[in-house]
Design a protein that fits this description.
By secondary structure, the chain is mainly alpha-helical. It has 14 helices and no strands. Helix content is about 75%, strand content about 0%.
Length: about 325
């Protein structure tokens, strides 16, 4: 449980740093840079993360173990989960942070446990109770209210909302797939994460950026105009790597529902970090705090079966 909560704290640090990165001048130098910013930032973010994971596995003498996962029957599901959680989910998250800001973007993307519940209902035929649909609706209303708060600067609500739903779909679906794969005792969490980040970086580098003609934006990020951009991006990637590792360990230990419920606390941590580090007090209004609490609490309840808490007593061991 503590590991799952810590994954939310480290992801909040990643969110705040990513917001700093996307606010730097190279991403606003040209109209093309503005349009490509979420994709270019995510490509470098996941590439740095994948590189750090290869170093991590090499230091632990586990590179051979990583390459053995390609012989596993579940490898195709790992690749699918990586593709959905990376290019779809991470792009959506970056869009939400880019167009809504770090604090609002963090809250908006926190609907993924609720969306994951809907996806489980549709694709996995899992039962979703009437009150879970109600909590899902309250979650979405909280995001809507927060995004239209006059104290918060949202540059493009609809693109930010689209990003939030892409993120929720990608992360919710990926979590279900990867939880199944992690049940294999030979499937180390670091192997799964290395494959996920590598697939995501390759998808951006080989498919997405060439299609968008965005490769010419990448060299502009390594300029003297923003000397802290790359260090901040590397720091964001390292926090993300740590958060993912903790998240996967928690998935393996206590399952998807509890892990998502603990991880989804990251919007509250992101707001706290924004206030402490940047004195960003725009979110500290009663209305915004109410909307934030609504999204976090109702997002958790929409992903959980609360009758298990108040229903039949579990037998004592």
């Amino acid at each position: 449980m503590f590991v799952g909560l810590l994954s939310g704290l480290t992801w909040a640090a990643e969110t705040v740093l990513m917001g700093v990165v996307l606010a730097m001048s190279p991403f606003f130098s040209t109209p093309q840079a503005i349009a490509i910013a979420p994709f270019a930032a995510t490509f470098l973010h996941d590439a740095f993360s994948a590189l750090s994971l290869f170093v991590y596995n090499a230091l632990r003498s586990k590179l051979k173990g990583f390459f053995r996962i390609f012989t596993k029957p579940d490898c195709k599901w790992l690749v699918l989960g990586a593709a959905i959680g990376g290019p779809i989910g991470m792009t959506g998250y970056t869009m939400a942070v880019n167009f809504m800001g770090a604090s609002v973007g963090a809250v908006a993307t926190a609907v993924y446990p609720a969306i994951g519940t809907v996806l489980a209902f549709i694709f996995l035929k899992e039962r979703v109770r009437w009150y879970q649909w109600g909590f899902l609706l309250l979650t979405l209303l909280g995001v809507y209210g927060l995004s239209y708060s006059p104290e918060v600067s949202v540059t493009n609500f609809w693109l930010g909302l689209l990003g939030a739903f892409m993120c929720a779909f990608g992360w919710g679906t990926s979590t279900v797939i990867l939880t199944k794969c992690l049940k294999d005792p030979d499937m180390d969490e670091s192997y799964v994460l290395t494959l996920r980040q590598s697939v995501s970086a390759l998808a951006y580098g080989v498919i997405i950026l060439p299609l968008l003609r965005g490769w010419n934006v990448i060299p502009t990020l390594f300029t003297r105009e923003a000397p802290l951009l790359i260090p901040a991006l590397v720091g964001s990637a390292l926090f993300a790597t740590w958060s993912y590792l903790l998240y996967y360990v928690s998935l393996n230990k206590i399952g998807a529902a509890k892990t998502m419920a603990l991880n989804v606390t990251y919007p509250a941590w992101a707001i706290l970090l924004s206030v402490l580090l940047f004195r960003d007090t725009a979110m500290l209004t009663p209305f915004n705090l109410l909307c934030t609490a609504t999204v976090v609490i109702c997002g958790i309840l929409a992903a959980c079966d609360i009758t298990q808490l108040f229903g039949k007593k579990t037998p004592q061991l």
